[in-house]
Amino acid sequence: MYKFTTILISLLFVTSCASTSPQLNSGTPVNIYGVSSLSPKNGSWSVITSTGYQLALGTKLNDDSSGIINLSLYQIPEFASDEEFLSHVVKHRANSPDIGRFDLVENSEELVQLNGATCVKHKTISQDNSAKVGGNKTTVMQIEYLGYNCIHPFKKSIGVHTEYSLRHYKGKEFPELAQNAEEFFSDIQFKAF
After folding, report:
1. Backbone φ and ψ of 155, nearest 5°
2. What is the chain's Cα-based Rg?
3. How many CB atoms are located within 10 Å of the residue 52 CB?
């Protein structure tokens, strides 16, 4: 479910005109209820959607590549242990709808701490077999996702999903992806509601 939301936001961004979205200066504060961060210091990012519960940022790169950052809240049960939370996230991430368009290439999930919150960190690579590019053409591209699903430290029944994704042609390398993503994640602050 979490991955599917990011895919939908990515598709909307890529097929829309980015010039109508508000541009963010590097290091601009971005917020949702109980969570704040700073906009990325790399690239030119636009606000795709911003509500109290969700924030999505996007950037267009060269060669039809694009980046999306998603930060959102969702309801979770309270867990008896961190391992129970890990199992919950793994199960729900695996339940993304199979629409036949995306093939899973790689996936890993691990229990970690992020700025005072218990989280499941994930790294996923999917192949988009019908990526839309300029002129409504379709092609095959890869989407790399780096992200966290966290238990909000001030309210255990609230989950925080944050993900940094990059869509690009297979064979094109972006070694800075992990560094840029972790820089954004390191700026995340959890606050009382």
Report:
1. -155, 100
2. 16
3. 10
* Cα gap 160→152, rounded to integer Å: 6
The β-bridge partners of 111 are 120
Q: Pairing relation of β-strands 102-114 and 66-75?
A: unpaired
Q: Contacts for 36-42 with beta carbons within 8 Å, 24 or more apart? A: 36/188, 36/189, 36/191, 37/71, 37/162, 37/184, 37/185, 37/187, 37/188, 37/189, 38/184, 38/187, 40/69, 40/180, 40/183, 40/184, 41/183, 42/176, 42/180, 42/183
The pTM assigned to this predicted structure is 0.85
User: Torsions phi, psi of 79, nearest 5?
Assistant: -100, 145
Question: In terms of pLDDT, which residue wins out, 6 or 49?
Answer: 49
